[in-house]
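Quarterly update, task 2.4: XIL-bound model.
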Amino acid sequence: MTQDGLKQYALSSAASHKTPLYGTAIGTSDLTLQPRSRAILRHCNLVTSEYEMKWDAVFRHSHEPDYAAPDDLVAFARDNGLAFHGHTLWWHESIPASHRESSDKVFAEAAMQHLRVITARYAGQLHSWDVVNEVLEPAHGRDDGLRGTRFLNAMGPDYIGIAFQEAAALDPNATLVLNEMGLEYAHPEAERKRRAMIALLERELSRGTPIACLGIQSHLTAMEQPRHHPDLRAFLREIDGMGLSVMITELDVSDHLCPRDRAERDRVVADTYRAYLDLVLEESTVLAVTTWGLSDDRTWLNAFRPRPDGSPQRPLPLDRALRRKPAWHAIKAALLKAAAHRNSTISD
Ligand code: XIL
């Protein structure tokens, strides 16, 4: 059954850590719909939680946490031999409503409690964790480029180091990831963010913060994302030089700037996937490539970035009927190329 899925190209055996896994974001609704869960098993060897592991999701009904949904997701991965990427421990966008107004002290204690309980609950079962998400925002004007958030206000800039230390103590086997958006874009603010990221990682690594991997979200836009991107290339080389691996954590290609014609859209989206993946896979030790959904009916982009003409976005590898699109073939070709390159490097 797996013979012709993407997971075949994302080699998960043999020199495993040397070849990228391929995965998708999922929710519990994907597990009950047979065609979708079958497609996940056919194409993926890693899954991540799109939202049900987030702090606000776990506390959505009351002051008591509810882990039923993340338990189901982790069990699905375990029962089917898929790696699981935890998303995400601390993110300013996923603070439970009950803590939006709480005092700094109460907030800091609750954040720590959440991190400890959920990390311990799944310890030993996860491939990796996005420990913190989107911590940089140079436009907020701080010298260190940190985003002004409740976490920063309540705990100070050490909060990133604290989160990683706690997570490492509770789940020493998970690869700990610092996940960020907008590092991959071409505009001047993105370059500021890349510089701030290098400085942040240097600071944190020099004080022993156990960051193993940089998560690059990679929510791309077709007709905007440059095919050649020397600044991103240089940045990835610096990250590699620091001994960090990379995960492409939330890849999709918005087609909101593309013409309506479907074939044309699919072609431009696929080209964007291919050029981007080729570049990142060439420059980095990529542990996994994850798309933010597998089929177009599961994209968040129709809400977040609707097309001006109202037609549904086509940003993912499969269409609504779970048929392969040019994007699927582009990902396959990029993974095959990376695997061939790595195998030749290994046997050198
Ligand atoms: C999005 C999910 O796709 C939505 O379903 C949810 O409502 C909001 O979050 N960056 C992230 C992800 O790190 O967690 C976001 O996911 C997309 C942007």
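Highlight for this quarter: DSSP finds twelve helices and nine strands in the chain.
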